Amino acid sequence: MIPFYKLERYEGNAPLFDLTMMSIVSTYVGEPLHVHAEGVRGTGKTTIARAARGILPKIKRIKDCIYNCDPDNPHCPQHRDLTAAEIEALGVEEITMPFLEISQSAKVGTVAGSIDLARLTDPLHPEARLLPGLIPQAHRGIIFIDEINRLADTSPEITDILLDVMGNKPGHIQIEEAGLPVVEIPVSVSVWAASNPDEEPGPLEEIRRQLSDRFDMVYYMGRPDSVEAIARILKENSYAFKVSQAKKKYSTAEDEAQNDVYRQKILKWAENYRNADLPDYLRNYISRLYIKHNLESIRATEAMQQGALLHSIIKGHDKVLISDVTDMIPLVLKHRVNGDVLVRMLNDVDMKGAKEGILSFKSKKNKKDEETSPDYFQQVARPLKDMSRGELVNTEKTLTPT
């Protein structure tokens, strides 16, 4: 697979690279960011997601913990009641941030968890124990689902599990097996997905709207728009080029060095994100957008705030800018509102301008004040207070003149 840094970037896919790194940064600090990439087949959605595995940073966990327990905040049934001294005695290790995939053929047991058959059939010490599935094992990492619209259509049980996992930050998962006590554990995992809305069974928001709303950002990936970009993609995927790269002794070391550059950036961005906050005037601006355009999901405002902070950090801004917020509007709302509402919002921001739009929101009076204001109505008639009684009330004499 082509390393992340070598993947061709063009106008149609550049935002997806940003969203990928934003999600990794947010996942590293313990706040999932769910990303869904839509687009026609063959545009590289899945390639970008899988290549990002190479730039994932290291995380610390309790040694050999299959649930990836944070030593400072253990959560699994085996470690959550241990003292700091007991955890220290068990030891701590570093592993690469988990990256697991849920396939179209996945079953509920493989996704959530099931009975550990190896323990159950152990001839010396047989015991009935639960084996965590893909989602519990991906705690503090990434779950990737290709063709999520198909999965939502054919596997409603797995979709229900994803709704619980993605409903809150962190989410939770419940593992149930007959004869064993129910195990419920928190899980902090970012879900990445890819789909082609033009193919059967259709867009995710039309198949399972609740699951579509769980995604913080949805990006529609465009096709390459230049001959040069396509030519570079063809060259990098040619057999001769791959063979020549494989023969270079320094190739693997060079790729790892470039991946490490990304990891160091991610660690730096994560530290900045821990200390970042959205200014009150931008938070009020997002709130006004929610009220003015009658948005349904409060998750939209939360995603807009989280996205604006992360976007400002990876772009190297000293503070969060209004452009960081407005850049998030189409990503956050594409799957949550119809096209007419989204176009009105974007046109409203473009026509008013960022500064004017914020100032108008900040100084805007409430509805009652507007109705009592003398400037609320357009000045196309004389005020009532300036009109005489004869002009306001028609008597019988005026109506029936002699």
UniProtKB/TrEMBL annotation:
EC number assigned by the record: 6.6.1.1
Keyword Calcium applies: no
Keyword Hydrolase: no
Keywords, ordered alphabetically: Ligase
Taxonomic superkingdom: Bacteria
EC category name: ligase
Domain (AAA+ ATPase): residue spans on this chain: 31-225
Gene Ontology MF terms: magnesium chelatase activity
Record's protein name: Magnesium chelatase
